[in-house]
Design goal:
Order of helices and strands: HEEEHEHEHEEHEHHHHHHHHH
Strand order of the largest sheet: 1-2-4-3-5-6-7-8
Distance between the termini: 73 Å
Oligomer: single chain
Number of strands: 8
Strand content: 5-15%
Shape: globular
Helix content: 40-55%
Radius of gyration: 26 Å
Length: about 525
Amino acid sequence: MNLGGFGGVHVGVEAGRWWVRGAVLVVAAVAVVVGVAGLVTADRGVERRSGVVSGVPVEVVRPEGEARRLPGVVVAHGLSASMQLMRGFADTLARRGYVVELVDLAGGGANTERLPNMGDGPAADARLDRDLDVAVRHLRTLPGVDGARIGLLGHSMGAAAVVRYAEAHPDVQATVAISQGTMPFGGTASQPRNLLLLAGGLEFPDFRDGAVGALRAAYPQGRTGVTYGDPRAGTARRAVIVGGAEHVGVLFQPRTHREAAAWFDRAFGRPAGGGGVGIRPFQRAGSAMLLHLAAVLSFAAIASALLGRPGGERGGHAKLPLPLVLGVPAGAVLVAVAAVAVIPLGLLPVGLAGPLAGFFGVIGVLCAAVRLVRRRGREEAGGRSWRRIATAAAVLVVLTVVSFAVPAQLGWAHAVPVGPRPWALAAVALCAMVFFAGIETLCEGYGARVAALVHAWTAAGALAGLGLAAVLGLVSWFVLLVAPLIAALLVWQGVQAAALRAARAPVWLTALVGGVLLAWPIAVTMPIG
């Protein structure tokens, strides 16, 4: 029998696979080069200096080599964020002649102080007001800052905080509030002075209504996109809905930056017409995302090199019926939704970390339990030594942490665990490992496509379950705002899990890598409270 034709097909398939792998690595390399270049050049034209003032971490950004006395702006982040997410505004304003002070408010970023009740209530308001006051007073004392020309800019929780502060401090000349939501406003246009309100067109209605409502509290017939009042008298007010932007995306829209810069220019009597000068809102975050993408694309090649060519099947278990494999995660998600209702919000010292850890842990336990009940055989190491597997595990865990933490720290989020965050990290990582182990045990015996389907099905079910829990009031509504981050992490781990399955890595290795990947962002970004 002539098998030459089949051999040619096999060689062709292998060649095709290598071509695809090579193309993926080329894309990853290009992403690294472009991402690094973007981060290296992000500080061009500005000077920045970091420090801690009365326990509040701050970063001062000013035009490079500028000797004149310049107006100053304090920039405040939202809940579950940090100054890194707001650096684009510092870049924009500093390049247009402002001294900008970024601040990590209580519970966020490098600030280890507790934020009461996830930012809601009088105690939280008092804490945020105190942190803002520290930043404003510090900015006024800096050389080269005109203390009589101070403005504020904030997003979400930070927007509500800067509005409250400006209402209580008439010496604040201008305020920009981005997505502050609905809140009480007085009927006078000068409290706060010169208020610009921005919201994304794709945000929840409360955020859009909050911007319009704040305008009409002073100007009842006010319309979006129209400026009312006189900036010289402090009575200017304007509301803008930025089309095509959601709650986080609104921070990276060029129009958001143009509106904010032009508003401060008018309020401080500076020449208008800067247009798009210095506006590159997505440079830092976009460069970081390219480095994240490069990590995802290169993971398979690195894992394969570390683990070597597999010498046998991964496990040798009989596969469960597909309807059962798909049904178990669905049922587990419903149980987890019920379970999250009884998990205290403050179980861990990082807000939402306890309910999220419990939610994913319950799903993982139930998925793994079904597999264990019907287990046959014993998981094998694919002909590899345990020393090689342990070494690969250590390298891949470090690689996963670095590939998230370093680009995030440089581009869009504080990524170093501080204060009580390491304890939350350990607890969330353990539950996340159980979650991913549960998925992998359900996939045993199936090929790559079905295994990817099971992973995607379980991840999608988990996201839907979190949304259901938020809608039912069983967990904080804030879950809906962080759902995109969780979704991105689950996709990232889906790619890594597929690569490790192809290399026939043991289930525990896949669970370890995935657990660290999911837990790290949750532990370092959720507010301390």
